[in-house]
Amino acid sequence: MVDIKKLQAQLMERIDTEDLQQVEKVERYIALIKLNNKLDANIAEDGTRVVVVNGAQEYIKVHPAIAEKSKINSSLLAIEKSFEFKAPDLPEAEEPEDEPKPKKKASGLL
User: Fold this and answer.
1) Residue 52 pairs with which residues in a beta bridge?
2) Whole-angstrom Cα distance, residue 20 to residue 26?
3) Residue 35: its pLDDT value, please?
4) 15 and which of 22, 49, 55, 62 could share a cystine (Cβ 3.0–4.6 Å)?
5) What's the pTM?
């Protein structure tokens, strides 16, 4: 599992922290990651299927957290697509020296 604090720090480094909308997106993203982790813990504890008792009836169904994880995943992807990451700081490229162009050879054709 990813360290939440490291993930948040990494995202904050990649956005314009003066843009409150971008900061809020990071906060929402982190909140959804935390919620997703809690759902994972619930599924690990209960299993992927749960027994539902309704009066005298008893039946097995898929853990409801699985459907919620799907919704959270869609929300996470939508937020990821909307991030406006800053361009990474790259070292300046060196200017190539002017190289002499090779001279064309006469082909001997008329």
Assistant:
1) 59
2) 10
3) 97
4) 22
5) 0.74
pLDDT value, residue 88: 75
pLDDT, residue 27, reads 98
Check if the beta carbon of residue 58 is closer than 8 Å to that of residue 52. yes
Distance of CA 68 to the CA centre of its chain: 18
User: Which mean pLDDT values do the consecutive 10-residue runs of the chain (110 residues) have?
Assistant: 94 95 97 97 95 92 95 97 84 65 64
Q: How many CB atoms lie within 10 A of CB 37?
A: 13
Query: Over the chain, what HEC string results?
Result: CCCHHHHHHHHHHHCCCCCHHHHHHHHHHHHHHHHHHHHHHHHHHHCCEEEEEECCEEEEEECHHHHHHHHHHHHHHHHHHHCCCCCCCCCCCCCCCCCCCCCCCCCCCC
Bridge partners (DSSP) of residue 59 are 52
Exposed (0-12), middle (13-18) or buried (19+): which is 64, by Cβ within 10 Å? middle
Closest C-alpha to 73, from 100, 27, 20, 35 = 35
